[in-house]
Amino acid sequence: MNFIIRWIVTAISVAAAVWLVPGIEILSNSASWVGIVFFALILSLINMSIKPILQILSLPVTVLTLGIFYLVVNTLLLYIAAWLANGLFGAGFYIASFGSAFVASIVISLVSALVNGLIGNDA
């Protein structure tokens, strides 16, 4: 049940990023929410599996930059999720530039924290 809640929260966050950040788009032929749902699934799975490993590996740089490098790790995970979602599902998730991905990772993090706080989920 916790994974489903995390998936829904991630889908809401990705939808907010697609809506707010220029350069982040869903280019699917079907409804755009289907692409967002599949992309959120991939991003949730990556956040549960690869993200802890990358956080440990990048810990020295993250400490030196006072936590700013953590946003770069989130941006890298966003790129990996877009690559997998486009390859596996043909979701059509388009990232125009690193700057767009960086701002989108900030928006996704903030909206996820807000929605998790509203629903009382500690994920």
TrEMBL record:
Keyword Transcription regulation: no
KW Membrane (keyword) present: yes
Assigned keywords, A-Z: Membrane, Transmembrane, Transmembrane helix
Chain segments annotated as transmembrane: 7-24, 30-50, 62-85, 91-119
InterPro entries in UniProt: Phage_holin_4_2
Pfam annotation, one family: Phage_holin_4_2
UniProt protein name: Phage holin family protein
Organism this protein belongs to: Adlercreutzia equolifaciens subsp. celatus DSM 18785
Lineage: Bacteria, Bacillati, Actinomycetota, Coriobacteriia, Eggerthellales
